[in-house]
Specification:
By secondary structure, this protein is mostly helical. The protein contains 13 helices and four strands. The radius of gyration is 52 Å and the shape is extended.
């Protein structure tokens, strides 16, 4: 009896891929052996690479070159006019049709949850060591520390130590860039001429004193300085010179008086202690002064009785008196506050008036100073160590006046006038004449021991 041969049922396996690629290239994917590098190389799947290469070849066949190498102007066209029919068919813009508007309109009737700070909430303790100090200590100890984005900084790299690094180029160049400066053409500088080429220096934009001064370089002289002046102008100029001379004499007398007081005090000390340098005291005089002070203190201080211990009744009485005293002080303070509250508006109004009057007075003073600076310059003001001189009043007495130009004698100094004018117009700093000092030679005495030598 013949038996039928068993048949094998083969199911399509999804894990195995076809042995032949769609592009026609040979493939070894269905090979079961994976022993060795050679088998691994044969079983590499390059179907996606082949598919991409085939797409690029099809683009080259159609357009002549790949699409990614083509410019946007050759691929696209911008329609600036549009289609009128399409514009009519489109719906108009409305905020109610936006999805964001619909989401925002969905509001719940339940109020939102909020949190209140309570005593049960633990307060965040203040760090004993700041973040910068902690980073510095970690750098000193060569310990890893966290950087930006939770990265670990290597302590051995440059700049991670505890020492301070030099300033970067960005910090050194800070403040040199001017965003509003007009662009200038860059000039090529040859090698070795960097220090020779002039730099474009921008003038600082701030208000200078010399721009405010309107004083002329050559001031018109007073009428009283003429060789044949009017009587009123000559008398006025004489009065100005007289007042300036009186002011100078008063200042000199004041300085002399102060100096005389200092000299008299010095002479009194020298007369009281002959043979002793000024400001010094002898040892026995110091001891005598100390003894006299101690004796005086002993006589003045009375005998103190040690305070006795208070009883409970005395303590209660003292506490009651202290409480009454505090209550009276609080009551007086409350009474003063209640008296001040109704007059708060009046005080506020008075304070505002005082502030406005003070600001007005300050503005008037500044305006007067500016006007004086415009008319007279820096004359009489102190700048630095020295004071800008006002200049002497050039005037002649009545008997010294000449009736004609033939008898006129030249006076004054043009160089001094020009230098004084430049100082008053803030062109030259105020200075004083430096006179040469006469060198004083000191006599050095030597004592020889000739009287010791018997030869």
């Amino acid at each position: 009896m013949a038996k039928a041969a068993p048949t094998k049922s083969t199911k399509p396996s999804s894990s195995k891929k076809s042995a032949k690629a769609p592009t026609g290239a040979p493939s070894q994917l269905n090979q079961s052996s994976r022993k060795g590098k050679r088998a691994w190389r044969k079983n590499v799947d390059i179907q996606d690479v082949e598919q991409g290469m085939e797409e690029i070849r099809s683009e080259e066949r159609v357009t002549g070159k790949p699409l990614h190498a083509t410019k946007d102007q050759d691929l696209f066209q911008i329609d600036v006019q549009g289609d009128a029919q399409t514009r009519k068919s489109l719906t108009r813009f409305s905020k109610t049709l936006l999805t964001s508007t619909k989401i925002l309109e969905q509001r719940s009737a339940v109020p939102a949850v909020f949190s209140r700070p309570s005593s049960a909430t633990p307060k965040k303790r203040k760090a004993l060591v700041s973040h910068e100090e902690k980073g510095r200590l970690l750098r000193i100890g060569k310990r890893p520390r966290k950087g930006p984005f939770n990265s670990i900084i290597d302590p051995s790299e440059f700049g991670a130590g505890s020492a301070m690094l030099e300033l970067s180029e960005a910090v050194k160049a800070s403040g040199t860039y001017d965003a509003w400066e007009s662009p200038t053409e860059e000039v090529e500088i040859k090698d070795g001429l960097e220090t020779v080429m002039p730099k474009n220096i921008k003038a600082p934009a701030f208000k200078r004193v010399r721009d405010t001064i309107e004083l002329h370089a050559v001031v018109e002289p007073h009428q009283g300085t003429s060789y044949n002046p009017p009587v009123e102008a000559h008398q006025e100029l004489l009065l100005q010179a007289h007042e300036a001379e009186e002011r100078r004499i008063r200042e000199a007398e004041k300085r002399a008086e102060v100096k005389e007081k200092m000299e008299s005090a010095k002479r009194e000390v020298e007369e009281a202690n002959p043979g002793v340098a000024t400001g010094m005291k002898l040892h026995h005089e110091i001891e005598m002064d100390e003894n006299e002070e101690e004796e005086g203190n002993e006589e003045e201080l009375p005998a103190k009785r040690p305070p006795g211990r208070k009883t409970q009744a005395q303590r209660r009485k003292a506490a009651r008196l202290l409480a009454e005293k505090r209550e009276l002080a609080d009551r007086a303070l409350r009474k003063r506050m209640l008296a001040v509250i109704p007059s708060a508006r009046t005080l506020r109004r008075t304070n505002a008036q005082m502030l406005s009057a003070r600001e007005k007075e300050l503005a008037e003073k500044q305006a007067a100073d500016e006007e004086k600076l415009k008319q007279h310059g820096l004359a009489g003001r102190k700048l630095g160590k020295h004071k800008v001189p006002k200049g002497a009043v050039d005037v002649q007495l009545g008997e010294d006046l000449s009736e004609s130009l033939r008898a006129l004698k030249p006076e004054g100094n043009l160089f001094r006038d020009r230098f004084l004018s430049m100082q008053q117009r803030a062109l030259v700093e105020p200075r004083v004449p430096v006179l040469p000092k006469k060198q004083r030679t000191k006599t050095v005495e030597y004592e020889k021991h000739a009287w010791k030598r018997f030869e």
